[in-house]
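Tip: read the tokens left to right.
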């Protein structure tokens, strides 16, 4: 079995999982995943070792934290929204009306 393929797939899977846990929209996530795949393919064609391919891909695309930070500059109200606002917050009734809060997906 090709170890480069396995290593890169493990790294991509982990990266994509972390990406899915950000406040970045699904559409933008798909675009970023496509860019990552393109960069990895291009670097693989140059015969680089798998660890160098991954390091260079991260240098070109960016880490998840860097990407989310950059997207947060576009829409600062949504930066790290999923990390700051626990799910239980939305299930807590409002004191005056008794209704629960509504989540909005106006982010990025």
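Filled-in amino acids:
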């Amino acid at each position: 079995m090709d170890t480069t393929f396995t290593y890169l797939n493990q790294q991509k899977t982990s990266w994509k999982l972390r990406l899915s846990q950000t406040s970045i929209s699904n559409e933008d996530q798909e675009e970023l995943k496509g860019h990552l795949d393109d960069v990895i393919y291009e670097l693989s064609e140059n015969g680089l070792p798998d660890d160098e391919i991954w390091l260079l891909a991260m240098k070109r695309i960016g880490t998840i934290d860097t990407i989310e930070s950059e997207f947060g500059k576009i829409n600062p109200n949504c930066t790290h929204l999923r990390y700051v606002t626990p799910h239980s917050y939305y299930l807590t009734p409002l004191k005056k009306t008794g209704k629960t809060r509504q989540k909005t997906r106006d982010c990025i």
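The chain is about 65% helix and 0% strand. Confidence is low (pLDDT under 50) at residues 79-92, 100-108.
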